[in-house]
Amino acid sequence: MRVRSLWRAAWLAMFFLLGGCSNTAILKNPSSTPETYWQGRLSVKVFSNPVQAFTASFELQGQPSEGELILTSPLGSTLARMRWTPSSAVLISNGAERHFDSLQALAQQATGADIPVASLFAWLRGIQEDAPGWQANLEDAVNGRISARHIEAVQAEFKIILER
Question: Which domains are assigned to the chain?
Answer without folding.
Answer: 2-162 (2.50.20.10)
